[in-house]
Amino acid sequence: MSDRIKQLEQEGDVAADYLEGLLDIADLDGDIDMDVENDRASVSIVGADLDMLVGDKGKVLDALQELTRLAVTRETGERSRLMLDVSGYRAQARESLTKIGTEAAQKAIETGEPVELRAMNAFERKIVHDAVAAAGAGSVSKGEDPNRRIIVQPAGE
Question: What's the whole-model pTM score?
């Protein structure tokens, strides 16, 4: 097993311990699953009644992910890019965003015109950029956060 995989597994273990502590404090029941995907640790909390850990448009989940990354960084001394999901929220978002990117790419290719998408956060934009590229079109981000959006362009532009 490579040193990088061991490091990512250690990040997952530290994150799981931190999150188990938070679940205990909040008196919430949830199971924690750990994995390594795309060269980053991935931790998921699954269980009933965990919507409060996701919040409106995933804002609580984003904050919880940042806190977990800080806990991992403090413990390991290395900056963490850990991804956290709760009750499949990010997995469902990824599926929906992939569809948006693919459909925008198809439209741009068919019409030959750029397609402007709604404002998105960095996590969302990354998924859409990947989907657009896989569909054979190009994309660029324009604007400043929180109003940064993607412009999908026909291939070669």
Answer: 0.79
DSSP for the chain?
--HHHHHHHHHHHHHHHHHHHHHHHHT---EEEEEEETTEEEEEEE-SS-GGGT-GGGHHHHHHHHHHHHHHHHHHSS----EEEETTHHHHHHHHHHHHHHHHHHHHHHHSS-EEEEE--HHHHHHHHHHHHHTT-EEEEES-TTS-EEEEE-TT-
Calculate the CA 20 to chain-centre distance: 21
User: pLDDT tens for residues 23-35?
Assistant: 999 999 999 999 9
| pLDDT 10s digits, 75-89 | 999 999 999 999 999
Domains of the chain: 3-87 (3.30.300.20), 92-153 (3.30.1370.50)
